[in-house]
Each structure stands twice: as C-alpha cells, then as structure tokens.
Amino acid sequence: MSRTRLILLRLHWFLGITLGASLSFMALSGVTMSFEDEIMLALSPQARVSVPADGERLSPAEMIERLRQQRPGERLMSLQVEQDADLAWTAAFQRQKGQRNQRVFVDPYRAVIQGEATGAVFFDTVRNLHRFLSPNGNNPTGRLITGASAVSLIFFALSGMWLRWSAGSRSLRDWLRPDFRLNGRALYRMLHQVFGSWLALLYLVSACSGLWWSSETYRQGLTWLLSDSRPAAAVAKKPKQEKSPATEPDWQQVWQQVERQYGTHYQSALLLIPPPGKAIRIRVLPEGAAHARALDELSINPRTSKVNRFAPYRDLSTGARILTDMDPIHTGALFGLPGRIALVISSLCMPLFFVTGLLMYWKRRSRRRQQPLHSEEKM
Description:
By secondary structure, the chain is of the alpha+beta class. 54% of the residues lie in helices and 12% in strands.
C-alpha cells in the first residue's frame, strides 16, 4: 500500500469515528425539515380561512394598521400576502431581546390573528440544532462543529472515491452493484463502498451548500466570487446628505406598485417592513415560479413610494442565482420533488456509513488482537 493511500485511509476512518455521530445527527435533523412547510400546513387548520359572501379582503395597508393596533408593544416585521382566497396571510412580530420572533396566521378578511403554525416551535428548534447544534441558534462552538462536519463530508466523498479507484477497481458493475451474499466485514465494506459511490455527488452538494450557514468566511468568499456587485472598496463614496425626518410610508401606494407590476399574477408577496426611513423591500413569488425561493424583489423608497430597484429572478446571473438558491440547492428543491426525495434518501443513509465504518474498525482491531494469540499457539 502506498504511503499516500495509507495516510488518506487512516484520516478517512479517524474523521469518520470522531465526526460521524455529528454528521448522522445533522443528516437526520435535515430529513425532519425536508417537508417542513407541507407538514405544518397539513397540521394547521389555522392556515385556512372561510371566505365571506362578498369575498372582499382587507388591503395590506389596512391589515398593517390593524395588526399594529392589536399588538402595540411588538414591532411588525413583515406581512405575507397570499393570492389564494382561502389561505391566511402571515405576519411576523419582533419580540423582546432573548425571546423568539413569532410568525402568525392572520385572517385577511377580518384581521383576526389565528396563531402560529402547528409545529413552528419544534421545527425552529430542529433548524437551530441542524445548523448550529444549539436550540437557541448562533452558537460559535456549534458552528465550528457543523462546519468541520461539512468539510469532513466533502473529504469523505472525494477520498472515498479515490481510495476505491486506487485499489484497482475499475468495473462500473463492481462499483454500483451491491452483493448481499457477503457477510461480516466484507458485507460492511461492500455497503460502505457501493452506497458511498451512489451517493457521493449528493453528499458534495449537501456539504458545499451547508457550509453557507456554518462558516461566515465561506459565505463571504462565495459571495465575493459569485456576486455581481463591485467590492465595497471600489465604490466611490457619495457625499453626505442631510437626513429628512422619517415618516410612515403610504402602504396603499406601496402596494399599488406591486399591483402595477403583477396585477393578480403572483402566488404570494412578502412585505418586509423596515424601521422608519429605511427602504422597503418586497419579495414576490410570481405565477409559474420554478420553486418557492424563485423570488422577484422590489426596493421602494418609503418617502416617495417609487420603485428604486426591480430585480426579477429570471434576470439574475448564474452566480447571483446560485447565491439566491442556496437553500433550494441544500434541500434539493431546486431540482423538484425528485431532488428533494434524493436528498432525503442520502441523508437517511448517513448513519449507515457511520455504523459500517465503526463495525469495520472494530473487526480490524479484533483481528489484530487475535493474531498474537495464533502466533503463540504455533510455537
């Protein structure tokens, strides 16, 4: 065995033993969130509303005013307007420091708050554990562990394929066809190698996209590499202008900009309600969108209610689209239902590699311990 192959092999099993449990947990928690929206919608009768006879919904401006009246002590952060008549709208409120922000369903006809989605707290906890290994999120140590696990997964996929190739196996049939007639350590090795060959590409996709949340350095580097915007240092400084007093935007005129652009040809529109004086951003999911994150974005001046910038998803460059689609890439939603199912299967198989790796290691250690005994019997 060559020295390079021996080093890679030992590093492969060492990282597998030390980080395999963390990777398995991250994979299974990711499976839990794979169909999060569909599960919560199915379990939440409050997500649906009864349509009155006149079918007249409140305008977003009226809804914002009523929600603020109902919860004067909490800042309204966003309002998501749905096109479907029987779907509740969604409002997000900012809580006090240390408390979890809350997203609630709202009846668009009566402005009645119908409560959070069933399972929202559970999925929020699972998401923080998955990304940061912390129920409260933003855990530096947890980020380090999840980041190291994602990097190790990239190493496992690449080194595993190279180790198989360097062992002399060239037949596609040997690489991809499982043989369940084997037993013992040979069976564990076959499961580890064959299913690893099938799933290596999916693991590379999961790991490279997962680092987006684990490593701020990786996120910044990828943004610098793929973003269309110029580096901050290259942008000429604008002269300081006197700030005008911040006034409440005319939400009726703001919404008219959305109607002027889309009419009724949209699935949903998310109004991000900024602090006074800041630009208003609206993310619109148009009809026929490729996936739930294929959003157009409008930036609107809060004082004049004019559109400062309109960025439709279809006009994004390849690099900007990759940055925008990081979550759909990670979940497989970018590739439709087959992609989501494939990522779920690969995640469910992750503990298989941890367990078979441990079994192979234990069998090898047992065999080495028995070898001196056999040598003594022959003397």
